[in-house]
Each structure stands twice: as structure tokens, then as C-alpha cells.
Design a protein that fits this description.
Blueprint lengths: L5 H14 L3 E6 L9 H6 L18 H8 L4 E8 L21 H20 L6 E3 L11 H4 L29 H6 L24 E7 L2
Antiparallel strand pairs: 1-2, 2-4, 3-4
């Protein structure tokens, strides 16, 4: 099999992303910002911490990711604008358990990342690896939530979507805001009504995912 040039492969991946309503941008792997503080936001403040195999503490830590990124030169940053299921969002629309509320948006992100990773892999770019956004939502409850007692890496054998689960960018310590700025995207936190966690004031959500290519 003749492997396409990297430029040609990026053009095909970018076109496929755009077909899914996603904005792609090429980014050198060295421009991906990894910071140790990021996972503190997961560990203290996120309701998903420890509940999903796509999240800490089950994902590689920042030091591991820095080493992994040294093995890559080129990546594709992916921007997902809005929530397909909720074009307009008001704080009163959002339930206390808001993770399922965003199910369609999260699946849009995860399915697109998985598709692009597989395309690149089978096109000969065998190092391709994707990172999603938000906690995984393939199952109503992750095995990590169902498990009683201590959890270690062996629990992955019980994952019902083992082939599709990937870590989110933030879960491994990638600073999504700073990385997005590298390609000219202005990504800002969405204000929440009364500073109440999850009660966002509008639906102009910009989510970012990543595909490491080569």
C-alpha cells in the first residue's frame, strides 16, 4: 500500500471532519500545551472524577503525555461549535445531573474523533491517536462507577466500549484554552448563573478535541 503524503492525508481528514460539522486546524505537536495544574480541575471540582475510564485517575498523567507527544510532529485540532440537541440553552433547562443532558453533543465529539483516528490508522498513519472532550457517555454508568472496592488498570477488561474509549484532552493535562489559542481560536469559559456548577447561561459552547497523526 502506498501511504499518502501527510499533506494529502490531512486534507482528507479535514474534509471528513468538516462533513461532520467540525472545524479542523493543523497544529504542530510541540504547540500542544500540557500543564500540571489542569488535572487539579478534574480532581477538585469535576463531578466526573473517578467515574469514567476516560477521566483521571485512569488516564495518563501530564508527565506521561509530555513523553508521548515527543513521538509526534503533527496533529489536528478539532472544534465543535454548539450542542446539536440544544441550540438554545437556559440555566433552568439544565438538570442537576447534566452529563446525560449533553449526551448528543458528547457522542458527536467522541464518534468523530474515533472515525478520524481509524481513517488515519488504516491509511497508513498507524501512530494516530485521538483525544475527546468531556467524560465518556457511551454507557449509562461506567464500570468504574459500578465497581465496589479499590480500582486498578485491570478494570479496563470489563469496559463495554474498550475499542472506542479515549481520554479527553483535559484528563491528561492538556490546557485546551491555551492550545486553542495556538491556532487562533478564542475559547472562553461559559458563565454560569449564580456561579452554580453546570448551570451555563447560553448554548454557545465551543468544544475541542485532538487527533495526533504523525
Amino acid at each position: 500500500m502506498t501511504v499518502r503524503s501527510l499533506d494529502d492525508e490531512i486534507a482528507i481528514l479535514s474534509s471528513s471532519a468538516e462533513d461532520k460539522g467540525v472545524l479542523p486546524a493543523v497544529i504542530p505537536a510541540e504547540d500542544i500545551v500540557v500543564s500540571d495544574w489542569v488535572r487539579m480541575k478534574c480532581r477538585f471540582g469535576c463531578k466526573g472524577y473517578g467515574k469514567h475510564l476516560s477521566c483521571p485517575p485512569y488516564t495518563p498523567n501530564p508527565e506521561e503525555i509530555r513523553r508521548i507527544l515527543h513521538g509526534y510532529r503533527t496533529a489536528l485540532l478539532l472544534r465543535f461549535d454548539g450542542d446539536p440537541a440544544h441550540p438554545t440553552i437556559h440555566p433552568e433547562d439544565i438538570p442537576l445531573d447534566f452529563h446525560p443532558f449533553y449526551r448528543e453533543m458528547i457522542l458527536w465529539i467522541w464518534d468523530t474523533v474515533w472515525m478520524l483516528e481509524k481513517m488515519a490508522f488504516y491509511d497508513g498513519y498507524y501512530k494516530a491517536f485521538g483525544f475527546g472532550a468531556y467524560p465518556c457517555i457511551f454507557c449509562d454508568e461506567c464500570v468504574a462507577e459500578e465497581w465496589e472496592g479499590p480500582i486498578d488498570e485491570s478494570i479496563r477488561r470489563s469496559c463495554r466500549k474498550m475499542d472506542r474509549v479515549r481520554p479527553s484532552m483535559e484528563s491528561v493535562g492538556m490546557d485546551v484554552f491555551a492550545t486553542a489559542k495556538k491556532v487562533g481560536w478564542d475559547i472562553q469559559p461559559i458563565p454560569c448563573a449564580g456561579y452554580e456548577y453546570g448551570k451555563i447561561e447560553h448554548g454557545e459552547i465551543r468544544s475541542v478535541a485532538l487527533l495526533l497523526i504523525e
